[in-house]
Predict the 3D structure of the following.
Amino acid sequence: MANISLPSNLIPADGRFGCGPSKIRPEQVAAVNEIATSVLGTSHRQAPVKNMVGRIREGLGDLFTIPEGYEVLLGNGGATSFWDSAAHSLIERRSQNLTFGEFSSKFASAASAPFLEAPDVIKAEAGSRSVSVPTEGIDVYAWPHNETSTGVMAPINRVHGDAGALTVIDATSAAGGIDFDASQADVYYFSPQKNFASDGGLWFALFSPAAIERVERIAASGRYIPEFLSLANAVSNSRLNQTLNTPALTTLAMLENQVKWINDNGGLTWASARTAESSGVLYDWAERSSVATPFVSNPEHRSQVVVTIDFDESIDAAEIAKQLRANGIVDTEPYRKLGRNQLRVATFTAIEPDDVRTLTGAIDYILERL
């Protein structure tokens, strides 16, 4: 069908609602330009870059109010790389993995390494979440704070299983947008291309003293660990404010600007309230709609940073996304492997709540004309 032209009052000031890479604020791009000739194109082993990494680590520590002894680490590769690093450097014998979507399932697959015992996988159907069960012989309990593929959010509470067992949380789409108590996790890891509005290719993590001790002990055990995947390498390099290989400096610059912006506005409490406001606008809209409904039926399971909305079979959600895209409102399509008649909308920290309100009006306008 022909494109539907939205009136100007129904076009958000910024039409980027993708779940990653996410909306980047103009101020972040300006921050990159400011270091175009002083930092970009220079050695990552020298003071200008190492000082920037140091400021990021300090800013993240402040943002997450990390407990005494915790360290902010970073390494090359995104969360996908970290899953393999965790299999080599964090899991001693066996993990328990909660899976309730695409990305939690991928970590469970990585934890099936041949030198480990088969993981204890507790699966929930897409749109709901599973719960950890303290189990003898488990030394890592792992799940996502937020499942990006389905829009399900899970609480962060330390699992009290065997002595020394670690709680390891995938926070890629949650970090910087959902408040939590950092003391409840031993490892809280994420890539910076979601709430931190940067690009991928790096991972950051909060590590407890117990997690660092585990990493160092496994490294000393003689287990084969590829150098790129070694978390012991990440520990030693992070303490020097560097990475094993050359990092993407523009990614670091945009991240530094975003961390400062969040901290200056009130920190994680402010960011969490902002994403809750934006996601609440969408959930309230879907609850009122005669043709839409939140995909995650239990309100306690609903994400405040990734909203998934199902549509009645009489409505073609793909056509809604197409019409939105034609008007400059992009990346509202559902996660490709979920295969549902739905829209998926990011409500990350950089996204303005008023833009989310305008989006709901745009969807209504299109629905009236389909």
Remarks:
- The mean pLDDT is 97.
- The first helix runs from residue 26 to 34.
- The radius of gyration is 21 Å.
